[in-house]
Specification:
Elements (H helix, E strand, L loop, with lengths): L10 H13 L3 H14 L4 H16 L3 H14 L6 H16 L3 E3 L8 E4 L1 H14 L4 H16 L3 H14 L4 H20 L4 H17 L4 H31 L3 H14 L4 H12 L1 H6 L4
Antiparallel strand pairs: 1-2
Helix pairs in contact: 1-2, 1-3, 2-3, 3-4, 4-5, 5-6, 5-7, 6-7, 7-8, 8-9, 9-10, 9-11, 10-11, 11-12, 11-13, 12-13
Length: 293
């Protein structure tokens, strides 16, 4: 034990000094007193409570890594934690901080500097919240934040799965309604990366159908989802049209008209379909030759 962590007073007095520092928002002083309690009197009931307050104090010094570690210790040693829900509110804020770029201590050692970002730690904490409070509003918020993080990382499938979990767990909630819309938006982003994958469009169409069934009066949200699908149709049609253009440049007109024809038949309402019709007209003889007219 270092000198500054050695007990110079009875347990109760160090604990009370910590509580007083907490009330006055003197966070470094609170950290010191609660560390003295937890290090020198680890088996005392007050030391278990001190773990919670140590987590609060570290959180307010912006050390979310150590805050999370002490909250976890508190949950592990306290059989009936009276601060149970409060701990997970802090953990949600901590996970959001890691998501935003907060750093962990180097080599997981608290005396070493906070050095590297850890989006994985954010995901782990979100999962912990969902498993510990499966039907609580905090679980919905954790799933939503986790979905946002996956979306930021371009893990579109994982993001959609998180939103589907919200819909399943909280089917008539405001979060579920927003998740339907967000699934449509994420699917649109994904199809711009994988425009030849028909499963993404199919998922978006199923999502719209379920949205309409579950929230038939949510006209604004339904329209947003429809707009995403319309934009997806443009992306798919454009992909087919550009492939047709590629074959034209390669002097393979019969191949090109196949792609123009597909764009027209599968996505007739798109703007791109008009361009494809113009190219089909220009290549009419080749289309006739392969019986597309």
């Amino acid at each position: 034990v270092e000198d500054k962590e050695a007990a110079t007073l009875p347990l109760k007095e160090h604990y009370n000094l910590g509580i007083e520092a907490l009330k006055q928002k003197k966070w470094p002083d609170a950290v010191q007193q609660f560390r003295i309690v937890t290090i020198n009197f680890p088996d005392a009931d007050l030391a278990i409570e001190a773990l919670y307050y140590l987590g609060v104090s570290y959180y307010n010094t912006k050390d979310v890594d150590l805050a999370n570690k002490n909250f976890t210790k508190y949950l592990e040693v306290q059989k009936s934690p009276k601060h149970f829900e409060s701990v997970f509110r802090y953990k949600l804020a901590i996970a959001d901080a890691f998501k935003a770029g907060a750093k962990k201590h180097l080599f997981n050692q608290e005396k070493l500097p906070q050095w590297f970002e850890s989006k994985e730690e954010a995901i782990r904490i979100y999962d912990e919240i969902v498993s510990s409070l499966p039907n609580h509003a905090l679980a919905a918020k954790a799933l939503c934040s986790k979905a946002d993080l996956h979306r930021l990382e371009s893990d579109f499938k994982a993001s959609i799965q998180d939103h589907q979990a919200i819909i399943k767990k909280f089917p008539k909630s405001e979060q579920a309604l927003q998740s339907y819309v967000t699934i449509a938006e994420v699917a649109l982003e994904e199809c711009q990366v994988e425009f030849q994958n028909p499963d993404i469009l199919a998922l978006a169409q199923i999502n719209l159908k379920k949205l309409t069934q579950d929230f038939p009066r949510a006209a604004t949200q339904i329209q947003k989802a429809k707009s995403c699908i319309a934009a997806m149709n443009e992306v798919y049609a454009k992909g087919l049209y550009e492939t047709g253009q590629l074959y034209e440049r390669k002097k393979e007109p019969k191949a090109s008209v196949l792609y123009y024809h597909q764009a027209i038949t599968e996505f007739p309402e798109t703007k791109v379909a008009s361009d494809a019709k113009a190219r089909m007209k220009a290549l009419e003889s080749y289309a006739e030759e392969i019986h597309l007219q």
